[in-house]
């Protein structure tokens, strides 16, 4: 992590302690996109896949390329541990198609906007998230030349829309399919990068605060003075404290 950003990310962590997971994801996305200047509406208007790509890029910048992931086999319960490449995910998910998806199916013609972060957040609060997402993101729906409501779309058409949306914005649904080394069966699981990154940031922040406590006790330095030290120099000073 860049030296000048330690205090900023510590503040982000502190703010995120008292908010829901969706709020933490927004905080992390704001940290990943300083070019947006913390503009909440601008962040919420970005496609979901863009947010995921940004968060993978942030994870790479903060903690490196390699991500250690643990997953329980759905078939035999074995604990599986494997590595993912944060940089590769960031590059792959940044490659998106046209945000306006067009689907033609059995007399139906649909224009569908790939979901933005705000759409997904709002739909998650609805009793029927799928219906809510369709209602927000279907731009036009026509059957045999006549405009119709998005609520009337049959399941087959909804499935085609979902497939087209995934192709246009693959980062909107990052799902892993991992073969178990014990039984050979595959396990599918969603990779929630916001939750994964928050867990890492939380561990980093608590370790850093312990470093601050130890160095402040040993040398009488203030928190800003300690955070201004490079991680390498902090480690050397901590080693000196341990030797005393």
TrEMBL record:
<dbReference type="InterPro" id="IPR024364">
    <property type="entry name" value="Baseplate_phage_T4-like"/>
</dbReference>
<dbReference type="Pfam" id="PF12322">
    <property type="entry name" value="T4_baseplate"/>
</dbReference>
<protein>
    <recommendedName>
        <fullName>Phage baseplate protein</fullName>
    </recommendedName>
</protein>
């Amino acid at each position: 992590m860049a030296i000048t950003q330690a205090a900023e990310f510590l503040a982000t962590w502190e703010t995120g302690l008292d908010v829901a997971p969706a709020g933490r994801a927004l905080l992390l996305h704001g940290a990943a996109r300083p070019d947006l200047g913390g503009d909440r509406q601008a962040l919420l208007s970005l496609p979901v896949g863009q947010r995921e790509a940004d968060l993978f890029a942030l994870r790479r910048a903060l903690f490196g390329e390699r991500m250690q992931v643990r997953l329980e086999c759905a078939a035999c319960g074995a604990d599986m541990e494997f590595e993912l490449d944060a940089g590769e995910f960031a590059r792959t998910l940044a490659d998106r198609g046209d945000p306006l998806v067009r689907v033609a199916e059995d007399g139906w013609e649909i224009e569908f906007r790939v979901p933005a972060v705000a759409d997904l957040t709002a739909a998650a609060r609805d009793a029927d998230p799928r219906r809510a997402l369709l209602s927000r993101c279907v731009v036009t729906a026509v059957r045999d030349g006549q405009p119709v409501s998005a609520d009337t779309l049959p399941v087959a058409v909804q499935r085609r829309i979902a497939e087209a949306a995934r192709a246009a914005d693959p980062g909107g649904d990052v799902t892993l399919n991992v073969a178990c080394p014990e039984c050979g069966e595959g396990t599918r699981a969603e990779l929630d990068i916001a939750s994964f990154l928050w867990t890492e940031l939380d561990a980093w922040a608590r370790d850093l605060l312990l470093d601050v406590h130890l160095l402040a006790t040993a040398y009488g330095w203030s928190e800003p003075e300690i955070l201004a030290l490079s991680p390498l120099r902090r480690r050397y000073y901590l080693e000196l404290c341990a030797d005393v």
